[in-house]
Specification:
The complex is a heterodimer.
Chain A: H1 16-28, E1 34-37, H2 48-56, E2 62-66, H3 67-73, E3 83-88, E4 102-108, E5 113-121, H4 126-142, E6 150-155, E7 165-170, E8 176-177, H5 194-212, E9 216-217, E10 226-228, E11 234-236, E12 243-244, H6 252-271, H7 292-314, H8 319-348
Parallel strand pairs in A: 1-2
Antiparallel strand pairs in A: 2-6, 3-4, 4-5, 5-7, 6-7, 8-10, 9-12, 10-11
Chain B: E1 16-17, H1 28-32, E2 36-41, E3 46-51, H2 58-66, E4 73-75, E5 80-83, E6 88-89, H3 106-121, E7 132-134, H4 139-144, E8 146-148, E9 159-161, E10 169-171, H5 180-185, H6 188-191, H7 200-212
Antiparallel strand pairs in B: 1-2, 2-3, 3-5, 4-5, 6-8, 7-10, 8-9
Helix pairs in contact in B: 3-7
The chains are: A alpha+beta, B alpha+beta.
Chain lengths: 349, 220
């Protein structure tokens, strides 16, 4: 049964989403070559993204597929394969995406199909932006974190008519981001759904593992960038603002510079309303919640701190490391407590 | 609703329960009919299934299936359905404003929801003196019996009733509801972050179109 009321879709005079999809399809259908690519990733250098970018930029144009995906959709019997069509999917996902992400199926001339999430990079240095996005996903994967699976890129061949580059990930239909959930009842009754509580615990553990080295941060840890998988785990997505450095942290302060911005960003997204036009959040903390600090600790922070402490104890032979992490976490907790109060006052003002 | 039957076979170990975000297995209805929502298969080829203890209300279920109201496809026996992997309960859904032709915003959702429940209301047929409604103890439970399917192609539907809902379907006069739209719109604020004013007109439009159109003769 397909139920549509066309009247509902006449409210918006300019349909930016449709324009983005048309622009993508036009570039895809320009008989662009389909090639494959696997980036060089070195985690032992000071700036792995910069090095990966150095190797990647200018190397190819057209539809560039991840090598593993190319192996499944391109066979030796295929002489020249080109994209044949793009069919958009209708979804509730991606509505808070600053890039204007959209979803659909690319069909190739050999009838193979790839379901993808498409992220447009309509910035001045669009090719670099798209490569950074894809490279960070490979780095995250190589660091041992589960995240979106890179599918490739669509790049123009320098034609100024097409001033947007696109990074592609495999569309995982089971994935839902935390901003798709109505959390407004959750804070007043944390036991309302133990499965949802477990999702936050999983997100806290993932974030703690990420920060343990003192060498990595997500860079945009809003709830919209935390996803749940079909089997109940949570993982982080959209890492394009992530920071990875090869050097070992010198002290507690340098560790704090990786952990604090991430946790504060998450706190802010919990505290902002979904209807906030400036920066929509998930409204988990709202005016009806009496004790924001307790809820924030219960939902996320305590699990994060516990996992960080446990991981620090694993390296018990390194006394300095353990003491640095202890100092980092003490300052982190104190500063977040101040932030909670600030966001609560903002919400009430 | 029937009571739980401990003789109903337990889930074999190779089956994994679906995550709390997606699962339809936590409503009062689900508990009463031992409904299980689980994933089978390897990561490369997974299927998501709903299985429940059934046997009653088969006629109503067939009507729901014929009308295209039920989620998924019936397989392998009476009470096992293969359902889309992305389907999830309306109960936890955040409010989402449409931002383009291919986004499935609250207005369209409310309209489709109205159409779905409007169609259901007439399935009692001409012999019935009352409309059919879903009898749920609260909005959360009602939202657990309604599924959103995400990432759909243009010809596919987005809103369905879950298999097993026939156990919670009853005549409106039995739950003292003179008008099903009033009954349902009481619950709507729960599903749209309290902003009912934005979507209730769409719900009623969808509901009444089905009532006046497809099933009109049944209410004469």
């Amino acid at each position: 049964m397909t139920l549509h009321n066309p009247e509902i879709y006449t409210e918006q005079s300019i349909d930016d989403q449709r324009e983005r999809i048309i622009a993508f399809t036009e570039l895809l259908m320009r008989d662009v070559p389909v090639t494959s690519w696997m980036p060089e990733i070195h985690l032992d250098v000071d700036e792995p993204i910069a090095l990966g970018l150095h190797h990647a930029l200018g190397a190819k144009s057209g539809l560039i597929l991840d090598t593993k995906i190319a192996q499944t959709v391109l066979t030796e019997a295929d002489s020249v394969v080109t994209p044949a069509s793009f069919t958009p999917r209708r979804t509730r996902a991606g509505h808070n995406s600053a890039h204007g992400v959209f979803f659909g199926d690319i069909e190739l001339s050999n009838s193979e199909k790839i379901a993808v999430a498409v992220k447009p990079h309509a910035v001045e240095d669009n090719e670099k932006s798209a490569f950074v996005d894809v490279l960070t996903n490979y780095i995250v994967e190589k660091l041992g974190f589960y995240t979106l699976q890179p599918a490739g890129l669509l790049l123009s061949d320098g034609n100024r008519q097409y001033d947007t580059a696109y990074s592609l990930t495999i569309l995982d239909e089971v994935l839902t981001t935390f901003d798709s959930i109505n959390w407004s009842h959750f804070a007043n009754d944390l036991a309302i759904n133990p499965g949802m509580r477990e999702l936050w615990r999983s997100a806290a553990n993932q974030t703690a593992v990420l920060h343990d080295s003192g060498q990595a941060s997500h860079g945009d840890l809003a709830a919209r960038n935390i996803a749940s998988s079909g089997d109940g785990g949570a993982f982080l997505i959209d890492w394009e603002k992530a920071r990875f450095v090869g050097r070992t942290p010198l002290d507690a302060e340098s560790r704090y510079q990786f952990s604090y911005p991430d946790i504060k960003a998450l706190l802010e997204s919990m505290a902002r309303s979904p209807n906030d036009k400036f920066k929509p959040g998930i409204g988990l903390l709202h005016a009806g919640v009496p004790d924001w600090w307790s809820v924030f600790k219960d939902v996320f922070l305590q699990d994060y701190l516990t996992t960080r402490t446990e991981l620090a104890d694993v390296g018990a032979h390194n006394r300095q490391r353990r003491e640095d992490i202890k100092a980092e976490l003490e300052v982190l907790e104190a500063d977040l407590r101040v932030d909670v109060e600030m966001f609560r006052e903002l919400a009430e003002s | 609703m029937t009571e739980a039957d401990s003789r109903f076979p337990a889930q074999p170990s190779h089956e994994r329960p679906t995550s709390a975000r997606l699962s339809f297995a936590s409503s009062q209805l689900a508990r009463s009919i031992n409904l299980e929502d689980y994933i089978v298969g390897t990561s490369a080829q997974q299927s998501r299934l709903i299985r429940y203890q059934g046997g009653a209300h088969v006629g109503l279920r067939e009507k729901m299936q014929t009308a295209g109201l039920l989620l998924g496809q019936q397989i392998d026996g009476d009470n096992v359905y293969r359902i889309p992997r992305s389907s999830r309960p309306l109960a936890y859904e955040a409010s989402i404003r449409r931002d383009g032709s291919f986004s499935y915003g609250d207005e369209q959702l409310a309209y489709d929801l109205g159409s779905l429940l409007g169609t259901l209301s007439g399935l009692g047929g001409a012999e019935s003196e009352s409309w059919l409604v879903i009898d749920a103890p609260d909005a959360q439970d009602l939202g657990q019996m309604i599924s959103i399917v995400d990432f759909t192609l243009p010809e596919e539907g987005n809103v369905f009733l879950i298999p097993g809902v026939e156990y919670a379907t009853t005549a409106a006069d039995k739950v003292l509801v003179p008008d099903p739209t009033v009954f349902y719109t009481r619950h709507l604020p729960e599903f749209f972050n309290g902003d009912i004013g934005r979507v209730d007109a769409y719900f009623c439009m969808g509901f009444n179109e089905q009532r006046m159109g497809g099933q009109k003769g049944d209410f004469a």
